[in-house]
Design a protein that fits this description.
- By secondary structure, this protein is mostly helical.
- Helices cover 75% and strands 0% of the residues.
- It is a multi-pass membrane protein.
- It holds the Pfam family Prominin.
- The chain crosses the membrane at residues 99-129, 150-171, 417-444, 465-491, 770-790.
């Protein structure tokens, strides 16, 4: 009780100022997010027992549940442990509970006694020529049917024995492996428990460090009031200002783009006009020559060609007077420095944090002083907490680990012995199986059904001898094996029914938790709790990985909510910033002169007649002299006057040369000019809407700066203060939740218990039970194996005496004895049947 009271006083006397201090650490969910570090969880070494020791569990459990159908004898064990009195009545009660095991033990003893006795009687009987010992076999009509039936039965029984033998080998290997690794496994389990106990002080220290980190975070936030609060004010102004600045930047880009396109237009025209003028002069000269030729007196049918002369001209002057007005408006807009207006506004926007820092310097210094005072009060809290009690628990675990390590060589040796014994027993059973399989194989391979039993082959006879060898070996070792089965059955079966099965369904823990059974284990008394806390509830909560606070009902000892009540500290912090006043100067985003230039730019762009320009370009590009040249060539072919013919051909060639010049020199420039004009047309169509959008957004932003900026500053300043307080409240909630739900989660403790149960029951007991069950299985099937092997052996062994077929309808041809061969008479054999 003294330690508990001391722990209560010291813990909360330190935790209270600790949590008060962390109140200021709030800036986690506001401009700066503070990520809470996860509590350090103990590292758990995984199990190295990956073998499947429970491969025979269903059938073994079913057998043991049949042998012991009674429920767990909790009341009987409580009376035995408390009284330690084994009276006749108590022994009778125990034997009554173990009646199923006693029946199985009686059967085993009967097997142990009768098997060697029957074997001895059987051997003597065969020595006297009985029990199949006489080497004579009656040749009946169903002899082959009997042999096949005995063969099939022997084969099936041998397969069943082999299956049991395989299970013996596997379970023996698993048992040895479990024993071999049990020291390492137990050491790892204890190490996991120690790691869990060591993690609890570290988790408490993490909560303390988190409060210190929170204070430092808030101090850092207060140092950075300018950037943080300034950013909040910027966020409040960003909605109206950003669209305005962006629209100004956008119209500036449009002005620059329009200027670039106009420059490109002028450059193209400078290249194009001289070429077009030369082209016009050449085309006019050719046209005049053609006209002269067509009016010659000797020119035949030339008057019909005169209308084509109208096609020999270039339309369009490529003069665009509107572009000069647009060029002048663009130059004035550029000189107005529209982009500079946007940059000026952004400079004002970016200067807000520096202005806020200057305005809040005194309030920040006062708050930092209060935080430093609070931090000084909570230093050194964890060193006063009585956590040494955890070390007193860890010390015995360390001693137990050393003891396990000392016994490891002996355990390893016993593992090797158990493996050797298991292998020997498995190999002896395998010897019987091999004898049976050799008998089945050699017997059927060497037997000729038509042979007389006295004339069977050596291979067939060898098969029968193998059967009898297996029978003899079965009689010799089966009773010894049954003795092993009986001992392991008593140990392993009772361990499963009295330890493993109740351990799995928590009946064993309920037995340990019985009041008065183990006086030292009374958690409610030790912790001074009003709640009846028992080991079953603790184990169940730990299996759910609940915290120590929840598992041990520590809320009955500590009032956590009252310890975390720090409202007076939040009020002081709030009042420190409540009278804060921040003044931010105003600006004019767009001057009237700039607005006038933008209006002029918009009106000039909208009045630009791009359709007329495109029409002039199309007129020039639509000139086609090739058709007229074709007509002249056709007309020349109809002329009789060679001079006129040559003139027409020459003039057609001149037209083609001019058309080639148009295609190669004029058309690329016309296409470039057309592209530039179309780009200008697209931009000009959007300029009016863009300028109107600029005026609309700038007007709204200017109204905010003129009439709402003070309210925004006040609102965001209040948000910044509330942010600091909210950070603190968030930490308090985290601390409360961490202490009540996360600190000391006892899942590793329950895992250690469960892992111990797996080691003892799932691996060791299950593999041991599988071994004796498999061995007992083999022993049971040795009985029919002996019977059918003896029966089948006679069908393969070579008989000394022959017998005739018992068939009255079988007719034999008589013959004189003198006709017998001498060797048959000497050996006393019957002649072969015909």
């Amino acid at each position: 009780m003294n330690m508990r009271s001391r722990m209560k006083g010291v813990f909360w006397s330190g935790i209270l100022p600790l949590f008060l201090w962390t109140f200021v650490s709030g800036q986690s969910s506001c401009p700066i997010e503070t990520n809470r570090t996860e509590l350090q969880t103990p590292y758990e070494k995984p199990t190295k027992l990956t073998l499947n020791s429970a491969f025979m569990s269903p059938i073994v459990h079913s057998f043991l549940d049949s042998v012991q159908p009674n429920p767990f004898p909790k009341d009987l064990l409580i009376r035995v442990i408390k009284d330690m009195n084994f009276s006749t009545e108590r022994v009778k009660e125990i034997l009554q509970y173990e009646i199923g095991f006693l029946v199985c033990v009686a059967i085993g003893i009967l097997y142990i006694v009768l098997m060697p006795l029957i074997g001895l009687i059987f051997a003597c009987c065969r020595c006297c020529g009985n029990c199949g010992g006489r080497m004579q076999q009656k040749n009946t009509t169903n002899i082959h049917c009997k042999r096949r039936s005995f063969y099939l039965a022997t084969f099936l029984i041998t397969v069943l024995i082999l299956a049991g033998n395989v299970c013996m080998f596997l379970s023996s290997t698993n048992t040895s492996e479990t024993v071999m690794r049990s020291p390492t496994e137990l050491t790892d389990i204890l190490e996991n428990v120690k790691g869990y106990l060591n993690s609890i002080p570290k988790q408490i220290e993490q909560v303390t460090n988190e409060s210190s980190l929170t204070v430092d975070t808030v101090k850092s936030n207060l140092h950075e009031t300018g950037p943080l609060l300034g950013k909040l004010i910027q966020n409040g102004l960003k909605g109206p200002l950003d669209p305005a600045f962006n629209s100004i930047t956008e119209i500036a880009h449009v002005i620059n783009s329009t200027s670039d396109e106009l420059l490109k237009l002028n450059k193209t025209l400078e290249l194009l006009k001289p070429k077009v003028d030369v082209l016009k002069a050449n085309l006019s000269a050719v046209r005049q020559r053609i006209n002269n030729t067509l009016h010659m007196p000797d020119c035949e049918n030339c008057t019909s060609q005169l209308p084509d002369l109208d096609k020999l001209s270039l339309e369009g002057s490529l003069d665009f007077p509107d572009q000069n007005d647009l060029r002048s408006a663009v130059d004035k807009a550029i000189n107005a420095d529209v982009i500079g207006q946007a940059n000026k506004g952004r400079d004002f926007f970016d200067s807000i944090p520096a202005k806020v820092k200057n305005e809040t310097r005194l309030s920040v210094e006062l708050a930092l002083f209060q935080l430093e005072t609070l931090k000084t009060q909570i230093s050194g809290v964890t060193k006063d907490l009585p956590l040494d009690v955890l070390k007193t628990i860890s010390a015995p675990l360390t001693d137990l680990q050393k003891s396990i390590k000392d016994f490891s060589p002996d355990i390893e040796k016993s593992s090797q012995i158990s493996l050797a014994v298991g292998l020997v027993l498995s190999c002896l059973i395998l010897l019987v199986v091999i004898c049976n399989f050799l008998g089945l194989l050699l017997g059927v391979a060497g037997l000729n059904p038509k042979d007389n039993p006295t004339e069977r082959s050596g291979t067939s006879n060898c098969g029968g001898i193998f059967f009898m060898a297996g029978v003899g070996f079965s009689f010799l070792v089966s009773w010894i094996f049954m003795l092993v089965v009986l001992i392991l059955f008593i140990v392993g079966g009772n361990t499963y029914t009295l330890v493993c099965k109740p351990w799995q369904n928590k009946e064993l823990i309920q037995l340990i938790d019985t009041p008065g059974l183990i006086p030292a284990i009374n958690l409610s008394t030790v912790l001074n709790l009003n709640t009846n806390l028992n080991i079953v509830n603790v184990y169940s909560d730990c299996q759910k990985n609940k915290s120590l606070w929840t598992t041990f009902h520590l809320n009955e000892i500590f009032d956590l909510n009252s310890k975390l009540d720090v409202s007076k500290y939040t009020h002081e912090i709030d009042q420190t910033f409540d009278g804060l006043q921040i003044n931010i100067a105003n600006i004019t985003i767009l001057s009237p002169e700039v607005k006038s230039q933008l209006n002029n730019f918009s009106s000039r762009a909208s009045s630009m007649n791009f359709s007329n320009i495109i029409q002039q370009i199309n007129d020039v590009s639509g000139t086609n002299l090739s058709s007229v040249a074709e007509s002249l060539d056709i007309l020349a072919g109809k002329q009789n006057n060679q001079a006129i013919k040559d003139n027409l051909h020459g003039e057609a060639k001149d037209l083609r040369d001019i058309q080639t010049d148009i295609t190669s020199n004029i058309m690329p420039l016309l296409r470039e000019l057309n592209t530039t004009v179309k780009n200008l047309s697209v931009e000009a169509s959007q300029i009016t809407a863009t300028v109107e959008n600029v005026f609309k957004k700038v007007g709204y932003a200017q109204d905010v700066l003129n009439y709402k900026i003070s309210q925004i500053v006040k609102t965001e300043s209040r948000a910044f203060i509330d942010c600091q307080l909210k950070i603190f409240q968030t930490f308090l909630q985290w601390a409360n939740q961490t202490i009540t739900e996360k600190v000391g989660r006892c899942g590793p403790a329950a895992a250690a218990v469960d892992r111990s149960e797996e080691l003892v029951c799932k691996h060791l007991v299950e593999s041991l039970n599988a071994f004796w069950f498999s061995l007992g299985w083999c022993m049971m099937f040795l009985i029919p194996s002996i019977i059918f092997s003896v029966k089948l052996a006679k069908y393969y062994r070579r008989m000394k005496y022959s017998d005739s077929y018992e068939n009255n309808n079988f007719m034999m041809n008589p013959f004189p004895k003198a006709h017998l061969k001498p060797e048959l008479l000497e050996n006393g054999k019957q002649p072969p049947l015909t």
